[in-house]
Amino acid sequence: RRRVRTRHLLELKQRGEAWPMLTSYDMYTARIFDEAGIPVLLVGDSAANNVYGYDTTVPVTVEELIPLVRAVTRGARSALVVADLPFGSYEASPEQALATAVRFMKEGGAHAVKLEGGRPFARHVEALVNAGIPVMGHIGFTPQSEHTLGGYRVQGRGEQAEELAADARALQDAGAFAVVLEMVSSDSAKRVTAELTIPTVGIGAGPECDAQVLVWTDMAGMNTGRTARFVKRYADLGGTLARAAQEFADEVRGGAFPAPEHSFE
Ligand code: KIV
Ligand code: NA
C-alpha cells in the first residue's frame, strides 16, 4: 500500500466520501489502525491525558510528544501521521511555530502538523506551508485554550457562526490542507464544510463534516471514566485488559500458570 497524501484527502472530499481519523500514541495502535484502513493518524496532544496522565493538554511538552510521534511513524506503513504542536510551542510567532514543526518533522518523522487557532494563526500556518510542512488547522473548542473558553462548551452557535467561518477561511487561505472542527454545532459545521474546498474533520461537530476523528482511548474503552457526549465506544478494551490481568494474577497465585507447555524441560 502507498502512503496517504494530503491530495488524496482532497480527492475524497471532491468525491463526497467520508474518511476516519484516530489518535495514536504508540507502535501497536499505529500498526493496528493503519492495517484497519485508517488513512490519517493523529499523535494528539491528548497524549497529555491518555499517555502521561495530566488533567489537561496544557502541560505536555515537545520533548514528551516527539518520542510518541517516532513510535507511531514506525508503526504506520501507509497512514499519514499528523503531529500536534503542544501549548506554548508555537503561539509566540511564525518563527517559533516553524522551529517546533521542523523538530516534529525531523526528529519525529511526522508527515504533517496540527495547531490550534483561527485567524490569529494564519501567519503561523503560512510560514509552515511555505517551508514545505503540511498543516491541519483546529478551531471551535480548542482544548489548549480551555481556560479562556471557560471549559468544554459548544462553539459556533448564533453570532459565533460568522467568526468560526472566517477562521476556517483564513486557515484555508493560509494553505492548511484540512481543519478540525471540535464541539461545533452541526449547522455551523455543515456551513463551514460547504464553504471550504479543504476537508473538515469533525469531533462533536455533527454528521456533515468531510471526516470524523475520535481519541482512540475513548472510542475503544481504554478510558473507563466519563467521556464527552460526542464519543462513541466501539470496544471495551479497559474491561478486557482488566480481566486478563485478573486471570493472570489468579493463575499465578493458584499455581495454574505456567503449565508444562509454557516451560522448558
Ligand atoms: O489531541 C487530540 O486528540 C486532538 C483531536 C481530538 C482532534 O486534537
Ligand atoms: Na489536540
UniProtKB/TrEMBL annotation:
<feature type="active site" description="Proton acceptor">
    <location>
        <position position="182"/>
    </location>
</feature>
<feature type="binding site">
    <location>
        <begin position="45"/>
        <end position="46"/>
    </location>
    <ligand>
        <name>3-methyl-2-oxobutanoate</name>
    </ligand>
</feature>
<comment type="pathway">
    <text>Cofactor biosynthesis; (R)-pantothenate biosynthesis; (R)-pantoate from 3-methyl-2-oxobutanoate: step 1/2.</text>
</comment>
<feature type="binding site">
    <location>
        <position position="114"/>
    </location>
    <ligand>
        <name>3-methyl-2-oxobutanoate</name>
    </ligand>
</feature>
<keyword id="KW-0963">Cytoplasm</keyword>
<feature type="binding site">
    <location>
        <position position="84"/>
    </location>
    <ligand>
        <name>Mg(2+)</name>
    </ligand>
</feature>
<comment type="similarity">
    <text>Belongs to the PanB family.</text>
</comment>
<keyword id="KW-0566">Pantothenate biosynthesis</keyword>
<feature type="binding site">
    <location>
        <position position="84"/>
    </location>
    <ligand>
        <name>3-methyl-2-oxobutanoate</name>
    </ligand>
</feature>
<dbReference type="InterPro" id="IPR040442">
    <property type="entry name" value="Pyrv_kinase-like_dom_sf"/>
</dbReference>
<comment type="subunit">
    <text>Homodecamer; pentamer of dimers.</text>
</comment>
<feature type="binding site">
    <location>
        <position position="116"/>
    </location>
    <ligand>
        <name>Mg(2+)</name>
    </ligand>
</feature>
<feature type="binding site">
    <location>
        <position position="45"/>
    </location>
    <ligand>
        <name>Mg(2+)</name>
    </ligand>
</feature>
<dbReference type="InterPro" id="IPR015813">
    <property type="entry name" value="Pyrv/PenolPyrv_kinase-like_dom"/>
</dbReference>
<comment type="function">
    <text>Catalyzes the reversible reaction in which hydroxymethyl group from 5,10-methylenetetrahydrofolate is transferred onto alpha-ketoisovalerate to form ketopantoate.</text>
</comment>
<dbReference type="Pfam" id="PF02548">
    <property type="entry name" value="Pantoate_transf"/>
</dbReference>
<protein>
    <recommendedName>
        <fullName>3-methyl-2-oxobutanoate hydroxymethyltransferase</fullName>
        <ecNumber>2.1.2.11</ecNumber>
    </recommendedName>
</protein>
<keyword id="KW-0479">Metal-binding</keyword>
<keyword id="KW-0460">Magnesium</keyword>
<dbReference type="InterPro" id="IPR003700">
    <property type="entry name" value="Pantoate_hydroxy_MeTrfase"/>
</dbReference>
<keyword id="KW-0808">Transferase</keyword>
